[in-house]
Amino acid sequence: MQHRTVGDLMTHSVVRVQRGTLFTEIVHVLQEHDITAVPVVDSADRPVGVVSEADLLAKAAKQPPSPGGRQPAPVGPVTAAKHEATTAEGLMTSPAVCARPEWSVVEAARTMERHRVKRLPVVDDTGRLVGLVSRGDLLRVFLRTDRAIRDEIVEDVVVRTLHESPSAIGVEVTGGQVRLSGSVRRKSLVPVLVQLCGSVDGVVSVDHHLTAETDDDASAQHG
């Protein structure tokens, strides 16, 4: 099975700023390119952090309230430092959480969730910036047609990988939801088939009503 990787989905032409880029220049970059964050790179084009709209707003929040307005709540040391920052180096969230081009969609999605970020700079073997992948980019795998998903399951999973008869296993796909029916040769193949179907790009869920010609699990227990 061929799975699309981060390298397939990422944006290759990436806008970036340097450590010394000024606050107002960063705002102009975000506005000009209609983006919400930008990687910060060092002199070797290696990501060292990311400046987002949230980082810039932390700086803007330092402005004194209008007369009679509510006093700002106390802030932590990181936010306080951003209040005083004037360049990307002080404003950015660091270190940069990066991905590799060969990563799977699952690896990238889990990294985003674990670090609570919306995008990942993508780096090569030397650590240089080669792309940027966002949540929206990863979700593109779910734009596959039901027909394309079904064809891959039948041809790559059922026939080529498991060597099962396509006439013995029914595969229905609706809105990315897969329903399997019919019979496999051995009971132990059922969870394998379900797992492989779930790993196909574009699959949202897998439901099955499969039976088996032989219960090799029971045979192994009595053997």
UniProtKB/TrEMBL annotation:
Q: Which SMART domains match?
A: CBS
Keywords recorded for this protein, A-Z: CBS domain
**Which InterPro entries does the entry link to?**
BON_dom, CBS_dom, CBS_dom_sf, Diverse_CBS-Domain, UCP036990_CBS_BON
Any idea where the CBS domain is?
10-66, 92-152
Tagged with keyword Transmembrane helix = no
Q: Which Pfam families match?
A: BON (PF04972), CBS (PF00571)
What is the designated name of this protein?
Inosine-5'-monophosphate dehydrogenase
Give the species this sequence originates from: Streptomyces cinnamoneus (Streptoverticillium cinnamoneum)
